[in-house]
C-alpha cells in the first residue's frame, strides 16, 4: 500500500537553513539595510507585537497612525504638501505603472524623455495603456536641456511628460529646474521618476511644479525592496477626476488607494492586504531621513560621490558621465577598463572582498560598472573599501592582450 499520495518530495535544499552571506551592497540597489530597518519598528509597535526581529509579523493590519506617519515622511522627502501622497505595495515598477495607468487613457499623447533604460520602460508601459507615445531621445550619459523639452512639447503637444531624475542605468542626474513651469505653460503634466535619486539629490516637488513624483524603498531609504512612495499634485488629481474610463488596474487605482490611505476624507475601506512589514521598514527609512535632514543627506551623497569619482580617476579609470554636474550622487558609472571583463571584476569584488557592485544595464550593458553609495552606504568608509577592492581587481583579474 502506498504510504503517501505525494509524488513530489519536500525539497532537501529548502530544509537546510537559509544561508545569507555578509555583504556590503554597493550596487545600484537594493542597498544594505541598517539592522534597525530590518528589525523595524524601533519604537512603539514592537512591544504589542511581542516578537522583535526580521520575519516577525508586526500587526495584522497597518495601523492608521503608521500610515499617516509614512505619508508625512513622504511629504517631507518629496517636499510637497500634496494630500494625495502615499506608499504603493510594490517596487519602483509598480509606481511607474501606477503613475502611467492613472494619468493616461487610450489615445492620450505622452512625451517620454529617453536617455537610458527608464525612459524605455516608461514608453513600453504607456504603449500597453494604448497611449500615443512620442519619444524624445538623448544619448546615454547625457541629459535634457529646457530647450530640448520645449521643442518636444511644441512638436508633440503631449498631456504628460515623463522624465527620469536619477538615471540609474547611465549615472546621469537630470536637472529639473524650470521644467514644471515649462510643461504647465504648454498644458502638459510633469511626471518624474526619482527612484534612484530621492534623498540623494535635491528635489522639490511643489517648488519645481512636479505633478507626479515617485520613488522606491530600496535605494537611499535603505529599506527592503517592495514599497514605493508616490504623490500627485492637485493638477494631476484633476486629470484623474476627469478620466472617462477607469484605470486599467484595480490594484493600482489611485481613487481606491487614496481612500485606503485616508487621503480622501472618507472612512477607510479595505482595498488589499498591505505588505505590513515592508511598510514598517519604509516608515523607519523615512524616519532616519527626517532625523538626519534632507539637506545633510544631499550634501553627504554629493561629497562621497565626488570622493569616489576622484579615486576612480586617480586609478586611471574613465567616468561614463563626462560633465561633473551631471553625475548622479547616488550611482556612479565608470567605463569597464580596456581589456577586462566586467563580469570578472564584479565576481572578484564579491568573492574576495564581500562587496557587491553591478555591471551596466540597458544601453550601458557590458560598457560600465555601476557603484552605488546610497543612504547609510554613502560613507567615506564604503568609498575606501570599494576603491581598495577595485585596485586589487585590476591587479589580479585576467586581462586580455588584444
Ligand atoms: N526607476 C529607476 C530610476 C530605477 O533605478 C529603478 C530600479 N533600479 C526603477 C525605476 C524600477 O524599480 P524596481 O526595480 O524597484 O521595480
Automatic annotation (TrEMBL):
Species the sequence originates in: Geospiza fortis
UniProt protein name: Alanine--glyoxylate aminotransferase
Residues carrying N6-(pyridoxal phosphate)lysine: 219
Gene behind this protein: AGXT
Keyword tags: Aminotransferase, Pyridoxal phosphate, Transferase
EC number: 2.6.1.44, 2.6.1.51
A GO term from the CC aspect: peroxisome
GO BP: any one term: glycine biosynthetic process, by transamination of glyoxylate
Residues reported in the UniProt entry to bind substrate: 370
Family to which this protein belongs: Belongs to the class-V pyridoxal-phosphate-dependent aminotransferase family.
Keyword ATP-binding: no
Oligomeric form and interacting partners: Homodimer.
Domain Aminotransferase class V: 25-385
Record field: catalytic activity: glyoxylate + L-alanine = glycine + pyruvate; L-serine + pyruvate = 3-hydroxypyruvate + L-alanine
CDD domains assigned to the protein according to its UniProt record, in alphabetical order: AGAT_like (cd06451)
Amino acid at each position: 500500500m502506498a504510504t503517501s499520495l505525494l509524488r513530489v518530495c519536500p525539497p532537501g535544499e529548502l530544509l537546510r537553513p537559509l544561508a545569507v552571506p555578509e555583504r556590503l551592497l554597493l550596487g545600484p540597489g537594493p542597498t544594505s539595510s541598517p539592522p534597525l530597518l530590518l528589525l523595524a519598528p524601533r519604537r512603539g509597535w514592537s512591544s504589542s507585537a511581542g516578537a522583535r526581529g526580521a520575519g516577525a509579523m508586526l500587526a495584522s493590519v497597518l495601523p492608521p497612525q503608521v500610515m499617516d506617519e509614512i505619508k508625512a515622511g513622504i511629504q517631507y522627502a518629496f517636499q510637497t504638501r500634496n494630500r494625495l501622497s502615499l506608499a504603493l505595495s510594490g517596487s519602483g515598477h509598480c509606481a511607474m505603472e501606477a503613475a502611467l495607468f492613472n494619468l493616461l487613457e487610450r489615445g492620450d499623447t505622452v512625451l517620454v524623455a529617453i536617455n537610458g533604460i527608464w525612459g524605455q520602460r516608461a514608453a513600453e508601459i504607456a504603449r500597453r495603456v494604448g497611449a500615443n507615445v512620442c519619444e524624445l531621445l538623448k544619448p546615454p550619459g547625457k541629459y535634457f536641456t529646457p530647450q530640448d523639452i520645449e521643442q518636444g512639447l511644441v512638436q508633440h503637444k503631449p498631456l504628460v511628460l515623463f522624465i527620469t531624475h536619477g538615471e540609474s542605468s547611465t549615472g546621469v542626474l537630470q536637472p529639473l529646474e524650470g521644467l514644471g513651469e515649462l510643461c504647465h505653460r504648454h498644458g502638459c503634466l510633469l511626471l518624474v521618476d526619482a527612484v534612484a535619486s530621492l534623498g540623494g539629490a535635491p528635489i522639490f516637488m511643489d517648488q519645481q511644479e512636479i505633478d507626479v513624483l515617485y520613488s522606491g524603498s530600496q535605494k537611499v531609504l535603505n529599506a527592503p525592496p517592495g514599497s514605493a512612495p508616490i504623490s500627485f499634485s492637485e493638477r494631476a488629481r484633476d486629470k484623474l477626476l476627469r478620466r472617462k474610463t477607469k484605470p486599467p488596474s484595480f490594484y493600482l487605482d489611485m481613487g481606491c488607494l487614496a481612500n485606503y490611505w485616508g487621503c480622501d476624507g472618507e472612512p477607510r475601506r479595505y482595498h488589499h492586504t498591505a505588505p505590513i512589514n515592508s511598510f514598517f521598514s519604509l516608515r523607519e527609512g523615512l524616519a532616519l531621513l527626517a532625523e538626519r535632514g534632507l539637506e545633510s543627506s544631499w550634501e553627504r551623497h554629493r561629497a562621497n560621490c565626488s570622493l569616489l569619482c576622484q579615486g576612480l580617476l586617480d586609478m586611471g579609470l574613465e567616468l561614463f558621465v563626462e560633465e561633473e554636474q551631471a553625475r548622479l550622487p547616488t550611482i556612479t558609472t565608470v567605463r569597464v577598463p580596456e581589456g577586462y571583463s566586467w563580469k570578472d571584476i564584479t565576481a572578484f569584488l564579491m568573492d574576495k572582498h564581500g562587496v557587491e557592485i553591478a555591471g551596466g544595464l540597458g544601453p550601458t550593458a557590458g560598457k560600465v560598472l555601476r557603484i552605488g553609495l546610497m543612504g547609510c552606504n554613502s560613507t567615506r568608509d564604503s568609498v575606501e573599501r570599494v576603491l581598495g577592492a577595485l585596485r586589487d581587481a585590476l591587479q589580479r583579474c585576467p586581462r586580455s592582450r588584444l
